[in-house]
Amino acid sequence: MSSPAGDPTSGPADGSPGCSSDPLTPAARALADSIAAAFGDLGPNTDIAAQRRRTSRPPDPRRRPASVTDRTIPGPAPGSRLRVRVYRSAGTPATDAPALLFFHGGGWVLCSLDTHDGLCRELTHLTGALVVSVDYRLAPEHPAPAAVEDAYAALRWATSHLREEEGGDPRRIAVAGDSAGGNLAAAVCLLAAERGCPLPVAQFLAYPVLDARLATESMRTYGDGRFFLTAAHMRWYWGHYLAGAAPTPHTAPCLASDEALRLMPPAYVLTAECDPLRDEGDAFAARLTTVRHRTAPGVFHGFLDFFPQLPQAREALDDAAVWLRDRLAARR
User: Fold this and answer.
1) CA-to-CA distance for 116 and 201, rounded, in angstroms?
2) pTM
């Protein structure tokens, strides 16, 4: 659910729709085919350690200049610690800075702080926010609810200690994530409402994973292997994450009640036209009270990673950043 190392940085520059038989733009098609070839199949015999190495990527300091610091914060269990990476841009205030908690994608099994380092650098540059990327525990070593409890622990720390430890404003915290990270961002908002933690002021969900049933029309249309992410991939991810447990609203937020969703903070839901997860994101957005919903045409799951190459990614990221800046500007 995140692209492997060795992604092409060139190829067709045309961001216009492709030929009538292919809904991807030429540039998106070249990227999707390259990623799929490098990513490989996921199944019972997959060597997870090898797959993690295949999808790894070192931090990219060539992105927008930013201050980047690794540190730990309290985890969900007494004495436990979570690693986070804190980003500041030149425009991030030294005190009372708005903050964005970011949860990376990767199907709760793959990826890391490093794979999403470039995206986090861009987010802090575009929003001026203090971005805190959370290194939550991965399945299958740590199945659900480990990841969501780690994500909630990060929110709890931010609301209680962000000001004195990082100069952040606890009244202006948003959450964000891509794919499985979007799932965690939504789940954290549900948990905060249930447990009495101050709610984030906003949530940015980029092509989020929300429904374990895999029964949507977009899953059938785009999950056959032509568009990078497949239905088989999703079964593999969900299998490792749930480890035989039934999905709940905390693991599959589409199961949340309408009453629970009415308590959610304003959301920006970004979906991709040629993504198996598109319809579950669309359906979730339709149930939210205050939402901006954008579907990027001619692109595939994970396309935001390619904001230097794909105009649709650049436009979507810029639009989401403007929306986040507006939501983070007002103090509660």
Assistant:
1) 23
2) 0.93
277-310, pLDDT tens digit by residue?
999 999 999 999 999 999 999 999 999 999 999 9
80 is catalytic: no
Marked catalytic residue, from 3, 112, 179, 218: 179
pLDDT digits (tens, 9 = 90+) for 95-128: 999 999 999 999 999 999 999 999 999 999 999 9
**307 contacts: CB under 8 Å, gap ≥ 6:** 119, 122, 313, 314, 317
Contacts of 287 (CB under 8 A, 6+ apart): 258, 261
Contact 227, 276 (CB under 8 A): yes
Confirm if 222 and 275 have CB atoms less than 8 A apart. yes
Query: Which numeric CATH code is attached to 26-329?
Result: 3.40.50.1820
Count of beta carbons in the 10 Å neighbourhood of residue 13? 11
